[in-house]
# Entry
Amino acid sequence: ETGVTQSPTHLIKTRGQQVTLRCSSQSGHNTVSWYQQALGQGPQFIFQYYREEENGRGNFPPRFSGLQFPNYSSELNVNALELDDSALYLCASSADRNYGYTFGSGTRLTVV
Amino acid sequence: GQQLNQSPQSMFIQEGEDVSMNCTSSSIFNTWLWYKQDPGEGPVLLIALYKAGELTSNGRLTAQFGITRKDSFLNISASIPSDVGIYFCAGFPGGGSEKLVFGKGTKLTVNP
# Structure
């Protein structure tokens, strides 16, 4: 059974640019969530997708958007990048909305 | 609000010692999860708790879901050097929320 894979592993972007991060869910998982983890902090919930529909959102502005595809892979898009967007972005998948999530290793985004 | 207060923030122990950390909240949580995160990796699920009062073990790890549904603890017995890492409690708040809330983590250092 494959786990959750994320790409790229590291990324450097300039303030104002746009970025797309990708996630491949664990086989059989229909729910994917994205989290932002700043240095020294716990992960913060961005949003969740269940069967290709957004199923909940945390306190993040609309320039954070996402997609889930029929094969349950997912994208996180961030527009108009700000310096404070620098963080580890984690994707997590689950077989159901309230089960323990399996996390990927994350994408380390640095905005300069 | 839906915040998790995790303590202690950090622990320095000798190999072979037992460890205890806990998480509390002012509001009810329906599910409690304990994760471990190593540097450069995503969190790995250690134990999931789904019912108030539930006591669950995973090898040297034991965790309990508090009766009030507002707290949980994690114990590690006979610590070993590979237990080093950051431990996070996390939970799904009541009301069917899909948002997994994380504590700020407990950083564990084990001296051989």
